[in-house]
């Protein structure tokens, strides 16, 4: 069964979510059989030949100057052309801000169902089955696809990239005609987040602080621990609503959904809406002075104690480790 | 200028999840229903724009069973002018069916902006807005956290991974709203009274066949019972040890 993977690039750089989707495609191809083809919409080749190592048998490059920035209708048309060219039965995209938009457009264009933000895919009885959290992670929906192609978007960090796949990764041009006369959304500017930190949805390690930090000035403690661990800073909504931290750092149902290797929750009670955003983390650590805080029910490891004492000591211990 | 706001009624975010006997859907017993929180940003955005331009109409559309009328009334109480209720008794099987039904209802209204929340907090799918945009061949921007209208061009800001993006779209367009765009108003008593007289047009929703098959709704595997490694500063060395040796995350 031919599998097509949408390869997301931004400003000429392939994004890590693209390799995660390729990794999962390679794993599925071992069960379903058939080639793995990547498709990339870009103004210039972002180094696609190297993707053989990441699992691509070949890569289709739809090259057009207007693909320098994302535009839903044009990207969907190009990816739909790649679906037709490869007779893809499965299409995988990253569930990034771009990928979610594109996946929806593509599904509507092809008239097939889309399982978005999946956390696992499996082959059961010869067909693809997707699992995805719903109701803020309080339940998991298990979905099958009545029509072909099956389209799924994959939660960042929930799937592993591969290397050493030893596939060809041949790059071929995909004819892309973009009708520039159509009314289109146009990206006219971007600004990077302060400090150039890794986005939470892609971070390997996140240190989050809650109202237990008592005030914005004390987030220095959270930042120092995050720095020592090489991670990013997150926050609960209570902290964001109080104006202590920017909205981009909010983790939870109305914030970001994250799946890091390590999530450290400090002075966060663990309200259901916060848990919604972080329970797919691999390892959860909680530091809270209340032994009955709900966060301890989802944490793998916890310390009951005052953040103002425990966090500096933990930061120091981590620094020692890396010295 | 006519604006459409698509809203969904969803279970309250505190809802305790029980799976219905069919093994595939949420047991509705004891569920409190609310307007999807992201859709409230959409309603507020449309109302603010109408107030600013001093003209036009805000039309609310919602798809669902008879209970959805409550959600529609609350949007009307906030200040929307009228509503279309696409009636469907069966729970919608997937987003594409919903998007098709909505697009069908929107097509002839002559809307300049079609507003959605960025996602519904029950299926968390984030699909219906861009699907409707594709079906209606309209430009679309998702995750809108800042909005300005300059003549017939919408200028928006959206948060993407690691930064912000500024996007310009010609009207008509589809926009999906994120938190931070505005502070949704509460309905006034006057608004609630006025809402009772506002028209709700009922139509049968045509959802077509299923585009996804729900095999099961399962409770997530419980996370293995965690361990309190100790109290206070004294527990730090043990925490570092387990993170290195057991969890292998350091
Ligand atoms: C529709 C809706 C959406 C929401 N979306 C989100 C969301 O996306 N993300 C989110 O986080 N919340 C969300 N919430 C809010 C959520 O319900 C909680 O109010 C919020 O998560 C609480 O934040 P907190 O844990 O930081 O604060 P609190 O609940 O006040 O908890 C503070 C914790 O700090 C501990 N503490 C205090 N002092 C110390 C100390 N010195 N050392 C150690 N621990 C200490 C306390 O024991 C307590 O457990 C949402 C709510 C609603 C209704």
Topology overview:
The complex is a heterodimer of chains A (323) and B (250).
Chain A: E1 3-7, E2 9-10, E3 13-14, H1 16-32, E4 36-42, E5 58-63, H2 72-86, E6 90-94, H3 97-110, E7 114-118, E8 120-124, E9 127-134, E10 139-144, E11 150-154, E12 170-173, E13 186-192, E14 205-209, H4 219-229, E15 232-235, H5 237-241, E16 262-266, H6 272-278, E17 283-288, H7 295-298, E18 301-304, H8 307-322
Parallel strand pairs in A: 1-4, 1-6, 4-5, 5-12, 6-11, 7-11, 14-15, 14-16, 16-17, 17-18
Antiparallel strand pairs in A: 2-3, 8-9, 9-10
Helix pairs in contact in A: 2-3, 4-8
Chain B: E1 2-7, E2 9-11, E3 33-35, H1 37-53, E4 57-64, H2 68-78, E5 82-87, H3 95-106, E6 113-117, H4 128-135, E7 140-150, E8 153-160, E9 163-170, E10 173-177, H5 189-195, E11 200-204, E12 213-218, E13 227-231, H6 236-245
Parallel strand pairs in B: 1-4, 1-6, 4-5, 5-11, 6-10, 7-10
Antiparallel strand pairs in B: 2-3, 7-8, 8-9
The structure holds flavin-adenine dinucleotide (FAD).
The site of flavin-adenine dinucleotide has 27 residues of chain A, from helix 5, helix 6 and helix 8.
Strand order of the largest sheet of chain B: 9-8-7-10-6-1-4-5-11
Unreliable stretches of chain B, pLDDT < 50, 5 or more residues? none
Helix tally of chain B equals 6
Structural shape of chain B? globular
The low-confidence parts of chain A are none
The biggest beta sheet of chain A is recorded as:
7 strands, parallel
Number of strands of chain B: 13
What is the gyration radius of chain A calculated from CA atoms?
A: 21 Å
- The rounded distance between the terminal residues' Cα atoms of chain B is 57 Å
Number of strands of chain A: 18
Mean pLDDT of chain B: 95
Name the biggest interface.
A-B, 96 and 87 residues
Shape estimate of chain A: elongated
Question: What fraction of residues of chain A sit in β-strands?
Answer: 25-35%
* Ions and ligands: flavin-adenine dinucleotide
